[in-house]
Design a protein that fits this description.
Elements lengths: L13 H11 L2 E6 L6 E5 L1 H18 L5 E7 L4 H16 L3 E7 L8 H14 L4 E10 L2 E8 L3
Parallel strand pairs: 3-4
Antiparallel strand pairs: 1-2, 4-6, 5-6
């Protein structure tokens, strides 16, 4: 049993602990139910819940959300389509988002994964002024991808 001033009162029967909490006008809250014997504390439970929610909101404000956008290519993507998608990658990076550029291979295209690797390396070179490579081109099953991040200031 712990009182509102964080002083340990020792082990006592539940009825006596409840009476002690009512004398002070506060709540008896079970803090550690799995301990032997269970630990209880005298506190204002409503105030405790309010402070807990305020801490959670404050922590949520301070966290940074990382957005990951994905742009998909094919090994035979035409030049105009490549330029169009490259502009999207540059836009995402300028907004501070990470980009995962993916090349998908179908059927016999798996024989020419070097074309996909060249395309991803070209993309990394083309966006070098706004972004940098976080993870180099990597192959997973039928897809090859690269992860780009905004350039550090």
């Amino acid at each position: 049993m712990i009182d509102q001033d964080n002083e340990q009162l020792g082990v006592m029967p539940p009825r006596k602990a409840i009476e002690r909490a009512q004398e002070v006008g506060l709540d008896l809250v079970e803090v550690s139910p799995n301990a032997d014997p269970p630990v209880c504390k005298i506190m204002d439970y409503g105030k405790f819940q309010y402070e807990k929610s305020k801490k959670a909101k404050e922590a949520k404000k301070k966290q940074s959300i990382v957005r990951l956008k994905e742009i998909k290519f094919r090994s035979d993507t035409a030049e105009h389509d490549y330029q169009f998608k490259k502009r999207h990658v540059e836009d995402f990076l300028s907004r501070g988002w990470k980009v995962r550029a993916t090349v998908i291979f179908w059927g016999r295209e798996m024989l020419h994964t070097d074309l996909g690797r060249k395309m991803l390396q070209r993309l990394a070179e083309d966006i070098a002024d706004v972004g940098e490579v976080e993870q180099p081109p990597r192959m997973e099953t039928r897809t090859m991808f690269i992860i780009l991040t905004p350039k550090s200031s």
